Amino acid sequence: MGKKKHTGSQLLLLCSYKISPTVLSPTVSVFVDPFFVAPFQSLSSWFKGTEITLWETVHGIKFWEFMNQNPAINQRFNEAMASDSEIMTSFVVKSECKQIFEGLGSLVDVGGGNGSFSRIISEAFPGIKCTVLDLPHAVANLPEADNLKYIAGDMLRGRGTRINRNKVLV
Ligand SMILES: C[S@@+](CC[C@H](N)C(=O)[O-])C[C@H]1O[C@@H](n2cnc3c(N)ncnc32)[C@H](O)[C@@H]1O
User: Fold this and answer.
1) What is the Å distance from ligand 1's center to 87 Cα?
2) Residue 109: which of 50, 57, 167, 24 has the closest Cα?
3) Is the N end or the C end of the chain the one with fewer CB atoms within 10 Å?
4) Lowest-pLDDT range of 13-17, 40-44, 69-73
5) Locate the O-methyltransferase C-terminal domain: which residues (predicted)?
């Protein structure tokens, strides 16, 4: 009996993104989870209510507060973002888009999550000093490198003046 062949889309979901960068299972697992789907099933309540966001209508607090208060879900969400970024960054950094980064001395990745995007850039371009700015719960206890640093902060409050001489990824 020959080995079972998988389709391309099955291969994207098969193993952990920590083993292979081209895996989207963390992203799919979060986006089909009831905590994430429930808001989209409550559009009529949101239209009739007074909350600003759909998320507040269903979960009672803003999206990023919810992530801050639910570390396990926050970790899954960050891994979902990271698995998506790993695929995108591999294409961006290894393809003809790489000239975007050539010659840069530094960049700031605003809302960079756990820094997956910046980590790949920092490894591909050791001469670029990468700084990831994200909320404290997103950047806590992440390993830095010589050219990869994390800043815990709020992009809407004040940090901009200290990092405004860099290229900024959002
Ligand atoms: C959709 S995720 C994208 C993460 C990352 N750029 C990636 O592609 O993997 C948005 C990020 O914005 C961050 N964020 C939201 N509000 C923020 C704020 N006020 N200041 C800094 N970061 C914020 C979240 O914590 C989250 O990591």
Assistant:
1) 18
2) 167
3) N
4) 13-17
5) 41-157
128 pLDDT more than 70: yes
Task: Give the residue extent of every domain in the chain.
Answer: 22-169
What mean pLDDT do residues 143-148 have?
Answer: 96
Question: Cα(96)–Cα(31) distance, rounded to whole angstroms?
Answer: 31
Token readout for 94 is 């290894």
- Of 26, 44, 22, nearest to 36 by C-alpha is 26
Q: Which atom of ligand 1 is nearest to the CA of 170?
A: 6
Compute the radius of gyration of the chain from its Cα atoms. Answer: 18
Reported as a single tens digit per residue, the pLDDT across 146-159 is 999 999 999 888 65
Query: Which CATH code fits 22-169?
Result: 3.40.50.150
Q: How far is ligand 1, taken at its centre, from the CA of residue 6, in Å? A: 33
Q: What is the average pLDDT across 64-74? A: 94
